[in-house]
Specification:
The protein is an alpha+beta fold. The strands form 5 sheets. Strands 9, 12, 15, 16, 17, 18 and 19 form a 7-stranded mixed β-sheet that branches. The radius of gyration is 27 Å and the shape is globular.
């Protein structure tokens, strides 16, 4: 299991793309892995034949756990490869070899998990005080959240290991009770119709929940909003959208213009372009703007790296690519790491005002709300219909005061109103 992110400790096999005996080329995707940060395909670092699958679909295992074997092309299936074991063990971009067997043992059994050396076999995994060592962190967390006694759960994983899917199945059906003295299988009593169903959170949803709780607990957050007249900007976008679609191949929305204005404002107020690294507050020179994307699988924030160096057209194409891959669950690790500031287009849902939560360890997040036409007072006390939008800013008060945050928002308003 590769470590897809500095803080990632485990991953879940969503599906296997190769079957035992199937030919494998270099960089062929072997399986799809979901972690708390990203869903990614695991490419094969070898060319040969797919060997044994060690971790079934749906199981969550710790980083470093061998997932499968690939027999190198020069070696016949089932034969040792260059004396290195029964195949190549996969755990990420580089091979993770199994523990070395004793020299006197000519035919060691494959090591299928990074369990303690003295770990008993599946047949002895019956004592409650011994079973816990075989539970992954994901299984332990799910059991704690739902008060599940793992000693009552039957494992379907390798060697009888309890998987996350086993716990979810137990939560949905419960144990089948047998009457005292029953001599054989009994039919379980019919349960009354439940008034609710338990929602099992995906790794992505659990990570979002933990991240937002941590953000609210750690960062004292303040909020402010300004109203912008974007009539000229809306007119510019209307004039350019057809030509832009024909030339660039993507739709032109207001978001690239908004992101470009944010990057310019960050240059004027660089203290907003920062993030915490432990107790250290780092102010970054490059604007790596995270774009909040609501997908069917949860909220993700892919990053437009060096966004300040891109034109509106460049931003439009980069954002469109990230959004498309976010919905397809094809984001890479470098697509979601290193953000220094977050932009959220809440107006796409019709929202006219919102209070976003800071995307820690960053120190600020800004939203573009829905553009609405309203009668407003213009110069000379006249009333005119204008395209208006609210721009909302949440910021970490440990790193910033209202003076900097207010100045940034006023500068952003000025730039938006001058565009077009």
């Amino acid at each position: 299991m590769p470590q897809l992110g500095e803080s990632v400790t485990e991953g879940t096999i969503l599906k296997w793309m190769k079957e035992p005996g199937e030919a494998v080329r270099l960089d062929d995707p072997l399986c799809e892995i979901e972690t708390e940060k990203v869903t990614a395909e695991l490419p094969s670092p070898f060319e040969g034949t797919m060997g044994q699958i060690l971790v079934p679909q749906g199981e969550t295992v710790e980083v470093g756990t061998p997932l499968c074997e690939v027999v190198e092309a020069a070696v016949a299936p089932g034969q040792p490869a260059s004396g290195s074991g029964d195949g190549k063990w996969l755990g990420g971009p580089m091979a993770i070899p199994p523990d070395e067997p004793p020299a006197a043992d000519p035919a060691p059994a494959p090591v299928v998990a990074r369990a303690p050396a003295a770990a008993p076999q599946a047949a002895s995994r019956t004592k409650p005080d011994e079973r816990e060592r075989f539970y992954s962190p994901a299984v332990m967390r799910l059991a704690r959240e739902h008060a599940v006694d793992l000693s009552q759960v039957t494992g379907s994983g390798i060697g009888g290991r309890v998987t996350r899917r086993d716990v979810e199945r137990y939560m949905a059906t419960g144990p089948v009770p047998l009457p005292p003295g029953a001599a054989g299988p009994e039919t379980a009593p019919t349960a009354p119709e439940a008034a609710y169903e338990t929602v099992v959170l995906s790794p992505t949803r659990r990570t979002i929940a933990e991240h937002l709780v941590r953000s609210n607990v750690e960062a004292p957050q303040a909020w402010t909003m300004v109203e912008c007249d974007v009539t000229r900007l809306v007119a510019l976008r209307e004039r350019e959208k057809e030509r832009f679609r024909e030339q660039e191949g993507v739709d032109l929305t207001l978001l690239p213009y908004f992101t470009a204005a944010v990057c310019e404002a960050l240059r004027a107020f660089p203290m907003m372009n920062a993030r915490w690294e432990g107790e250290e507050l780092r102010r970054y020179h490059a604007a790596n703007v995270a774009i909040a994307v609501a997908t069917e699988h949860g909220l993700v924030t892919p990053v437009v790296h060096d966004a300040g160096d891109l034109s509106v057209a460049g931003l439009a194409k980069r954002i469109a690519d990230l959004v498309q891959r976010a919905h397809a669950r094809k984001l890479r690790l470098d697509d979601i790491e290193g953000g220094t500031f977050t932009v959220n287009n809440t107006g796409s849902f019709g929202s006219v005002a919102s209070k976003p939560i800071v995307n820690t360890p960053q120190v600020a997040i800004v939203t573009m709300e829905r553009v609405v036409k309203r009668p407003v007072v213009v110069e000379g006390d006249a009333i005119a219909v204008r395209s208006m939008v609210n721009v909302c800013l949440s910021f970490d008060h440990r790193a910033l005061d209202g003076y900097e945050a207010g100045g940034f928002l006023a500068d952003l308003k000025r730039r938006l109103e001058a565009t077009g």
